[in-house]
Amino acid sequence: LNQLYVGREYARDLSPSEIKQLKEFDTKMSAYQKYVSESIHQQVQSLFGGMNSDLWSLLGDPAPATTEIPSDSTTALAPVEAPEAPSFCVAIY
């Protein structure tokens, strides 16, 4: 799993430093994805209110099990920025 590929071709093993960078990136990306998901859910909740469960059923997904978000408009999630990918992670098109 700690191998670097260029396309489908094996290039080399990751160094211990690169493995550490990748783990840190994964942790930060997971936090960012959670933030985005919760932010979208909060926006949908504020737009549709009680219709939220109906919206989820229209999308074919069960309504997520979450706690109620206070109706106070000043309640906001602390922003989380998308992490920068390690230098050895480059998309090749």
Q: Spell the H/E element sequence.
A: EEHH
Radius of gyration, rounded? Answer: 19 Å
Give the number of domains: 1
**Strands of the largest sheet, in order across it?**
1-2
Q: Overall mean pLDDT score?
A: 81
- Weakly predicted, low-confidence segments: none
Q: Would you count the extended β strands for me?
A: 2
State the helical fraction. Answer: 40-55%
Strand content: 5-15%
Shape: elongated
Main beta-sheet annotation:
2 strands, antiparallel
Count of separate DSSP helical elements: 2
Structural class: mainly alpha
Distance between the amino and carboxyl termini: 22 Å
Organism: Anisakis simplex
Subcellular location: Secreted
Keywords: Disulfide bond, Secreted, Signal
Protein name: Pepsin-I3 domain-containing protein
Task: Please describe what this structure looks like.
By secondary structure, the chain is mainly alpha-helical. The chain has one domain. Helices cover 43% and strands 10% of the residues. A two-stranded antiparallel ribbon has the order 1-2. A hairpin with a 2-residue loop joins strand 1 (3-6) and strand 2. The mean pLDDT is 81.
